[in-house]
Amino acid sequence: MPSARVLGVVLALCAGLPADAREFRSSDVYPFDYPTVQAVVQVDKLMRERSGGTLGITVLGYDDRDSESFTAAQVRNGQLDMARINLAVLNNLSPSTAIFSLPYLFKSKEHARRILDGPIGEEILADLERHGLVGLCFYDGGPRHFDSVKQAIRTPADLKGLRIRVQQADIWTSILRAAGAEPVVAPADRVYLKLQSGVIDASEQNWPSYVTLRHYHVAPYLSLTEHAMTPAVLVFSKRIWDTLSAKDQAIIRDAARDSVPIMRRLWDDYEAAAEQTAEKAGAKIVRDVDRKAFADQFVPLYPSIIEDARLRSLVRRIQADQPLELQSEQPKE
Which of 11, 226, 278, 315 is the right S-S partner for 143, CB 3.0 to 4.6 Å? Predict the structure, then answer.
């Protein structure tokens, strides 16, 4: 992570670290005020409080210029202790992660959060361990939309012929090809220049990323398709994790999970502020999108994307999920 800006957490250094202290390094591609970065700040705070100062995150990487695929590899091999990564980056490595990138899988933000916090979320986090990553928690990714340079994207037909940026290992490569688009793999920090130079015609982002990465300057059309709600995941290196005591592992895992509600409050505020920023800057927000047409074209692709029987069962469970208050209203047999 040589190109990352770093924040030295100097309080512990000034006070003098305990002899058995463990200080970790983290990474994120987003700036310091981004909700996921601030959530890891909270993780550091909770770790220090609960360990008596023996655990902490000394180097908080943000604005990292390495691709998230490269960062994931660093965490796996122990060169980096932990990182916040978009889950789509791990689709090829751990196939169950692809489920949460499926189009129109989640009915709402509340539905997505309920699944991520529940048994299915825990199962997918556990799957990461066999691949050298300890999944600590999920962070919201919000609804994703298409941002484009020259035209609004109101129906699936509008995607035909467009060169659209996707992340490496993202299942959306096959989905976009099926819609007649040309997927182009590119890391997040290269997308602005590719949009500006005409190498690509569009990308897909959530509100915070659209504004943070300044895409509204070069891709002024943001079509609110809400086609996916892919979360991010906070991961820890399994190689480093296995050197920790069970007590320290529990402190780190609990601190990560307790950061989630804070992250979500920050996310909701950041999302609303990003929308206002884009609109004031003159972005063309396209709200008359035919989401049903997108869903009708994309959802039938599930069987070609998810072939494993266990993973198909997880998808069915997510689709059948209902809030507790609705479950209690179901007639008893």
Answer: 226
* CATH code of domain 144-229+283-308: 3.40.190.170
> Contact, 124 vs 99, CB < 8 A?
yes
- CA 119 vs. chain centroid, Å, equals 19
CATH topology assigned to domain 5-141+231-275: D-Maltodextrin-Binding Protein; domain 2 (3.40.190)
Q: DSSP labels for 31-63?
A: -TTSHHHHHHHHHHHHHHHHHTTSEEEEEEEES
What is the residue extent of each domain of the chain? Answer: 5-141+231-275, 144-229+283-308
Name the residue with tokens 């069915």: 316
pTM: 0.89
Ordered alpha helix ranges (H), 90-225: 109-117, 119-127, 172-178, 191-197, 207-212
Q: Average pLDDT of each block of 10 consecutive residues along the chain (333 residues)?
A: 44 51 92 94 97 90 78 96 94 94 96 97 97 98 96 97 86 93 90 96 95 95 97 98 98 98 96 96 97 97 94 96 54 40
